[in-house]
Design a protein that fits this description.
Helix content is 46%, strand content 15%. It is an alpha/beta fold. Bound molecules: NADP nicotinamide-adenine-dinucleotide phosphate.
């Protein structure tokens, strides 16, 4: 039996992971964690006979304890308990908590030499070099779960990374792809919250429309595969059937195609290094008919230039970028700022942070990363408020 834990089990990636686990009989579930969705966490813990269920919020302890009364499942609560659960022995963990809260359990699991299937984008964007060093130090494995990064990872099997010229991540272009540029400034959270191909939560769907999601993925690819900033490219591909392309020095291009279903990259990480059956729709290219590609318009998607800036600057800028993006998104959803202001918030925050004496110092610990996150959130809030009051 393989011992498996799922961090962020009540979320979209977490639930897709549980769906795959439920189809297997060689899995023993050690830990499931969630946030405020106590009913869903309790149900999953019972269904999967988890050893331990952890909610990230202290106030959810009692409802979770009550819901799991008489089941023998251990219960814990609070961010410390989530991080500690990363230390509980497991052969494979899914890191699918959203946001910076996902960092600590991921680091803890790596310190145990565990294989970490990494969906939490923030880990690589905010703490890429530290995370990879932790994995190396403990002979742990990180498997990418973002669909584009899983696609690149799969295209690189048996290849030497030194022979790669470029990696191209595809992007649907989001729900506002065909809007006239002058109308974009007036887009509402509802407009930006509709995705043409992927079924995801509101925040990540808006991040797709602004391409902040792709910008995060560009930084992730740079960190995870050790690519130079100019080696990581983005192409708009409205059908979302080609997930990534890897171009080699001999002119060959390996593409990864498949239906847009997160259970593919999750299942690949679960079965790795083997391939196993997965319950995903089979690709019918004749039915798809055509595959379109275009260069992203940089005026429409300023997030991509900001990602390049982060890759060039390195140091703490990934943590600043991520925190500022989160604050900008909060203010956009609250209708305090416009759609295009989100990039202005991130740029303004990177500028303010760069003016600090300590800005060039790379974080040397998880605590450093989290301190930068807090500082950047303050700066980003100031920038967002200043834009809100702009005429
Ligand atoms: N959705 C996708 O298709 C997709 C694809 C690739 C990568 N990703 C990345 O994977 C991660 C998860 O995405 P998702 O779409 O699954 O997010 P989601 O649906 O919002 O789920 C997030 C999970 O994190 C938990 N959570 C929220 N706040 C927390 C906190 N402070 N401490 C601990 N746990 C907390 C949530 O618990 P409750 O719901 O119980 O509050 C839930 O279990 C993100 O980093 C995302 O960028 C997602």
């Amino acid at each position: 039996m393989r011992r498996v834990s799922v961090f962020g089990a009540t979320g979209s990636v977490g639930e897709s992971t549980l769906d795959l686990l439920a189809r297997r009989d060689d899995i023993e579930v050690a830990v499931l964690t969630g946030g405020r969705n106590v009913a869903r966490l309790a149900k999953a813990a019972i269904e999967h006979r988890a050893e331990l269920a952890v909610t990230a919020f202290e106030e959810c302890y009692k409802p979770l304890k009550d819901a799991l009364g008489g089941t023998g499942i251990e219960v814990a609560a609070g961010p410390g308990a989530v991080a500690e659960a990363g230390l509980r022995p497991a052969d494979w963990i899914m890191s699918a908590i959203v946001g910076a809260a996902g960092l600590a359990p991921g680091f803890a699991a790596l310190s145990q030499g565990t294989t970490v299937a990494l969906a939490n984008k923030e880990s690589l964007v905010t703490a890429g070099p530290l995370l990879l060093a932790e994995a190396r130090a403990h002979a742990a494995t990180i498997l990418p779960v973002d669909s584009e990064h899983s696609a690149v990872f799969q295209a690189l099997v048996g290849e030497d990374i030194a022979t790669v010229e470029t990696v191209t991540l595809t992007a649907s272009g989001g729900g506002l792809r065909d809007w006239p540029l002058e109308k974009l400034a007036r887009a509402t959270p509802e407009d930006a919250g509709k995705h043409p191909n992927w079924d995801m939560g509101q925040r990540i769907t808006i991040d797709s429309a602004s391409m902040f999601n792709k910008a995060m993925e560009v930084i992730e690819a740079h960190e995870f595969f050790g690519l130079a900033p100019e080696q990581v490219r983005v192409l708009i591909h409205p059908q979302s059937l080609v997930h990534a392309l890897v171009a080699f020095r001999d002119g060959a291009v390996m593409g990864h195609l498949g239906a847009p279903d997160m259970r593919h990259p999750i299942g690949y990480a679960l079965n790795w290094p083997a391939r196993g059956d997965l319950p995903v729709a089979r690709l019918d290219l004749a039915a798809a008919g055509r595959l379109d590609f275009a260069h992203p318009d940089r005026a429409r998607y300023p997030a991509l230039a900001l990602a390049e800036r982060v890759m060039q600057q390195g140091g703490a800028s990934g943590a600043v970028f991520n925190a500022a993006k989160e604050i900008a998104l909060d203010h956009f959803i609250a209708r305090n700022i416009g759609f295009l202001d989100m990039a202005r918030v991130v740029e303004g925050t990177l500028d303010r942070f760069a003016a600090r004496a300590t800005s060039g110092r790379a974080p040397t610990s998880l605590a450093d990363v989290l301190a930068t996150d807090t500082e950047a959130r303050h700066l980003a809030t100031e920038v967002a408020v200043s834009l809100r009051h702009a005429p």
